[in-house]
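Late entry, written up from scratch paper. The run itself happened at the end of the previous shift, but nothing got recorded in the book at the time, so transcribing now.
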Amino acid sequence: MTDNYQQSNEWAQQHRQSLTTRHTHEDVLTDREFELLLEACSSLPEPRDLQARFVCLAGGRLGLRAGEIAHFRTDWIDWDRMLLRIPQLEPCECGYCRRQAAQETTHNEQLTHEEAMDTRWHPKTVASARSIPIDLSLRLELCLERFTDQHDSFPRSRTTVNRRVTAAAEAADIDDRVYPHCLRATAASYHAYHSSLVKLDSNTIPKSMLVSIRCRRSHR
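Output as recorded:
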């Protein structure tokens, strides 16, 4: 009786959580909101203006994750082929990577901190090491050109990615929640709606996210 009650209680808790959990695709920005977000980037003081614009376009049009943006390097871009190539490994010793390595060692006593750092930084999954076309728009190309002219890599931390998005959203006076991963979902929505998925690598945007967005749009 106790086991059945416990299982029933656990199911009820999971059900309540599923009803209250907010999914990323619910926070997808409309085309107008995204334009306002980009416009607001220009109102930020230098050098935050260009950094924010780069973050917003990298997330909202190329579908990059926050960790990928934070570890971006200019040599990821192949200008001849107009591709941004995310590597399987990018040596890094930033604070975020050190914290992730420390967390790994707590779950694996045989793993040393040095060994954990040897695998940092890497994308979220094996499939996340991918090539992404960057010739999607002239605006995107110009932003990448200007950013790479001034920086060899993203000059700040993983936390800064969030801060730049938040600052731009506040300047744009957007009421909805705006954060890096919702920009990734916005990229999926944009390319699904504009039927330009043929230009994107299949790993750029999660299929589950695309299916969800297509279903939402079909019921509008």
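Residues 27-88+130-218 form a domain with the hpI Integrase; Chain A fold (CATH 1.10.443.10).
(Scratch paper discarded after transcription.)
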